[in-house]
């Protein structure tokens, strides 16, 4: 079963938004989707403003209500097939915690940029090299990792999702506008792994 982990700071805004949008867009029992924070507000629910944004982008109410922030543990990184960091700092921290995850950790927006650079045939070819969803996802991640040098480097901070925690509603909306289209690209790759 492929395991996807979204990581941000407090686990009340960006990473749970990523997780609930993934669940809404690709409900498949063969897929595990979780989120955690590097400095989690452990036990806290979704930030209310981000929860509104999640609803606007089609997240299911039961997933929003069920969320409780949890602290990222090193073992979480080792178990995940794909780690989606919401900033470059989170990505760097994940790799420093467990260097073996280097090729499976991407910022969410970096992942989306790389996935856009891979056409459907390339995804299909990569997935066909393995048997089983987890193995296919690993092949797809190798493909995307190989595109890091050729897909073009972003401008400074372009791979980060703005942190809306404690900020006005428009910043939460901006985070949602950055996360939602990136999630669509993650779904595209996950569908190739599950096919």
TrEMBL record:
Any GO molecular function: protein tyrosine phosphatase activity
Pfam families the UniProt entry points to: LMWPc
Key words, A-Z: Hydrolase, Protein phosphatase
Record-linked SUPFAM superfamilies: Phosphotyrosine protein phosphatases I
Active site annotation, chain numbering: 8 (nucleophile), 14
Enzyme's top EC category: hydrolase
Official protein name in the record: protein-tyrosine-phosphatase
Classification via Gene3D superfamilies: 3.40.50.2300
Top-level taxon in the UniProt lineage: Bacteria
UniProt-listed PANTHER family: LOW MOLECULAR WEIGHT PHOSPHOTYROSINE PROTEIN PHOSPHATASE (PTHR11717:SF7), LOW MOLECULAR WEIGHT PROTEIN TYROSINE PHOSPHATASE (PTHR11717)
């Amino acid at each position: 079963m492929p395991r996807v982990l979204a990581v941000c700071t407090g686990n009340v805004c960006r990473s749970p938004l990523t997780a609930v949008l993934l669940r809404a867009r690709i409900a498949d029992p063969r897929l595990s989707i979780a989120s955690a924070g590097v400095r989690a507000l452990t036990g806290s629910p979704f930030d209310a403003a981000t929860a509104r944004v999640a609803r606007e982008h089609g997240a299911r109410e039961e997933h929003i209500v069920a969320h409780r922030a949890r602290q990222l543990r090193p073992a979480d990184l080792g178990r995940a097939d794909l780690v989606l960091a919401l900033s470059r700092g989170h990505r760097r921290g994940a790799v420093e915690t467990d260097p073996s995850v280097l090729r499976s950790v991407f910022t969410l927006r970096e992942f989306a940029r790389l996935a856009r650079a891979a056409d459907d045939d390339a995804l299909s070819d990569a997935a066909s090299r393995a048997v089983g969803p987890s193995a296919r996802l690993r092949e797809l991640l190798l493909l995307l990792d190989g595109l890091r040098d050729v897909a073009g480097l972003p401008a400074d901070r372009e791979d980060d999702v703005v942190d809306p925690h404690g900020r006005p509603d428009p910043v939460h909306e901006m985070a949602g506008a950055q996360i939602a289209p990136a999630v669509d690209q993650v779904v595209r790759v996950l569908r190739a792994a599950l096919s």
